[in-house]
Design goal:
Blueprint: H1 2-35, E1 37-44, E2 56-58, E3 60-61, H2 63-73, E4 85-93, E5 99-104, E6 114-122, E7 125-127, E8 132-134, E9 148-153, E10 159-165
Antiparallel strand pairs: 1-3, 1-9, 2-8, 4-5, 4-6, 6-7, 9-10
């Protein structure tokens, strides 16, 4: 009987820990969407949809070209040459909130317009957590004119994708169509 109570207590405790962790993650992401700095990253052409994962657009950011070039130039000095790693780029935020690549981040102090932007290298390919945009089935053609991704940026450099925008930074909205 004692081992049964212990097992039950461990099961309840483990479940509570998981629920608390999940809710903390949701809270952090909601807070980022509400309070994170709004920035725009220019998109590069990418695979538009996947039939196996539903309707979504795989996003590639033009900033990746600059990051890749800088990684290649200093690959001997960086610990990012492993197949899977993370790093930061320094971006400058313009008056229009469009982020432009400045350099790779090496711990230096940032100017008031500069921000850190976290990126990942997975299997020798640059990615960001905000690399897929899901939309309702049949609405893929609405997003063919997407030029920018609107993201919310945390001070730690992490981002959450908010929406896609056209050349004029107008939000592409499925409900308007």
């Amino acid at each position: 009987m004692t081992s049964h109570k212990l097992y039950r207590s461990l099961l309840v405790t483990g479940t509570l820990i998981v629920l608390v962790a999940v809710n903390m993650t949701i809270y952090d992401r909601e807070k980022t969407l509400q309070e994170g700095e709004k920035i725009y990253l220019r998109l590069s052409p990418a695979d538009p949809r996947s039939m196996t994962k539903g309707d979504y657009q795989s996003l590639s950011y033009s900033i990746f070209e600059d990051i890749q070039k800088n990684l290649s130039e200093c690959k001997d000095r960086l610990p990012l040459k492993r197949c899977n790693a993370s790093g930061y780029a320094i971006v400058e935020i313009g008056d229009d909130s469009i982020a432009k690549f400045i350099s790779l981040y090496h711990g230096e102090e940032l100017s008031p317009r500069e921000r850190k932007l976290k990126f990942h290298i997975e299997n020798s390919r640059l990615t960001m957590p905000s690399s897929r945009f899901f939309f309702r089935e049949g609405n893929g053609r609405l997003y063919t004119n997407a030029v920018y991704a609107g993201l919310r940026l945390n001070p730690d450099g992490t981002t959450i994708l908010e929406n896609l925008y056209d050349e004029s930074l107008e939000k592409i909205d499925e409900s308007d169509r």
